[in-house]
Amino acid sequence: MAGSEAAWQAAQMGVSVVLHEMRPQVGTFAHQTGDFGEMVCSNSFRSDDDEQNAVGLLHWEMRAANGLIMEMADKHRLPAGGALAVDRDAFSQSITERLRSHPNITTKEGEVAALPEDGNWIFATGPLTSATLGQAIGKVTGAESLAFFDAIAPIIYFDSIDMSRAWMQSRYDKGETQEERTAYLNCPMDKEQYEAFIDALLTADKTEFHEGETATYFDGCLPIEVMAERGRETLRFGPMKPVGLTNAHQPDVKPYAVVQLRRDNALGTLYNIVGFQTKMKYGAQTEVLRMIPGLENASFARLGGIHRNTFLNSPTLLDSQMRLRSHPHIRFAGQITGVEGYVESAAMGLLAGRLAAAELLGQPLQDPPQDSAMGALIYHISGGAEAKTFQPMNVNFGLFRPVDGLKGGRKGRKDRYKAYTDRAKSAWTDWLSETNLDAG
User: Which segments of the protein form a coiled coil according to its record (predicted)?
Assistant: First the structure.
């Protein structure tokens, strides 16, 4: 997504772009196609609330900058309560069509295996940088690339779910329409069922790592069995929390835990299990997940899996314009820079594309304002984070500078978040208007 957005932004500003894609000639564990913007983990861009949520604010900033990813996400949106979820196949196909048909973009299939010595480049290799390129990056940066493991959630065919046990409801009935308020499919568990499920998770066969590899997970994408290992109640306070839901079949019985599924395509034939990334082996997955009430006869369109994710120690390697300090003709964007999530990755692509194009056109841009969501992320990865403990980061209000005079703590949170988003929108709008190179 970062590479797609970077190419789009630069091309819209009048720069000729060659967009390299190694797939399908060189595949990955998680990708199924050669399309741009393929979603491999979830089909959700998370909250779309641009007043009270940092991710929703990032959506707003990308839309204001005429971002391709947000345009296509809005075009292929699915009901998901207050979240922005998309039909993943239609989404990536439409991105591919737009990029391939752009007069300023030439697409080229094949792996780029080294960092070029000249030219102007953006490397946006996503969560699955090839081993060859990863080694080349490590050699040029003079530092070992860090790695963690991303886990993929299973997808289930809707018609195999027992709706006499499950029901449709968004948590706290969130959403403006009935479709939004019933966007999630819920499977309840009593205490005995939950305890048996945890026992099965803890003893299930799991994917083993290769010799010399270590598993350092990003907390926002922990496999369910890793969460279970942290404590038997962890899942009940995470993806299986039973709050804000009433069992339509037994309204007087409060579930002990709830598994939620979210629609994964426009037809409503596929549902993914929310927060259920897993590294269980395939046989164990089907056995354990069919212990969930309503999923006893579940048919799986895709089982979960695990893959390696490489990222840079960006605070030591990248400047505030996303350039490699030692080789400033090279920029990095997306998840390899140490941001985490579809939205954050695409946002870094948007910035890299704009910054690179402006520099090539002889009208370099000022750094993005730190009070914007994008600026807060750039500041964090290019020096604001502690390099010794640097880990992938989602956008969040903890990255924003405080607003003077506002109350701290939970009680003041609503006013504080609104102040953050108002300030960010103003700063971002001013930054966009300061240049005549506005893409689109």
Answer: none
